[in-house]
Structures are given as structure tokens and as C-alpha cells.
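So, can you check?
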Amino acid sequence: MAYNSEKNLKRYYSISEVAEIFQVNESLLRYWEKEFPHITPRKCGRNVRQYTQENIDDIRLIYTLLKVRGMKIAAARESLKNNKEAVVSNSRLIERLQDIRSELVALKKELDRV
């Protein structure tokens, strides 16, 4: 779910780039747009979607609620509606813990080689 810092400099991302970031199908992103109305990528000629960093941050929250925490769509929608700030905080905490776990696993592998 990570993406490199060079891409952070971009203003708009294609649907394929966003799908790659989250390792999901493009059709799932289009479905989430219907289920979560606050995801509104810009659409240019021939309805080509262009996602902003803000869109990606919203998708990251939804991804965390649905894929990481295993919530149903209705529960995730309600959670975002009622207390988005807590969801954002919890999402950041989960991401940081996953990063720490990855670092620890890499460190363990290094120690096992010694």
C-alpha cells in the first residue's frame, strides 16, 4: 500500500495508479466512488478519472476500514460520517504499527543471517 515519494509530487493520479497503490482492481475504486460520495475524482474528457492526494487519503481511510479492519460498507460509511477524526487517527496508528512491524521483521531477518 506504499507509494514512492516521487509520486507525491504529482497533482493528479490515474485510476490505474491509485489501484496499484492499494493493490485493488479499478472496478473496486469505481464501486467505492458510488458507495462513498465524498470520493470525487476529477473527470476530464471521456470520463477519465484524475485523483488528487486528498482523494487518495480518503481512499486510504476506506481501504483501512474495509480491508484491514474488515468492516461492512454501511458500517464504514457510518463511521466516517459520525467520527471521521477518530477514523483518521486510528488509520494513521494502524499504518505506523504496520511500518514498525515491517522494520522489526527485516531486523529479525538480518539477525538470523548473522
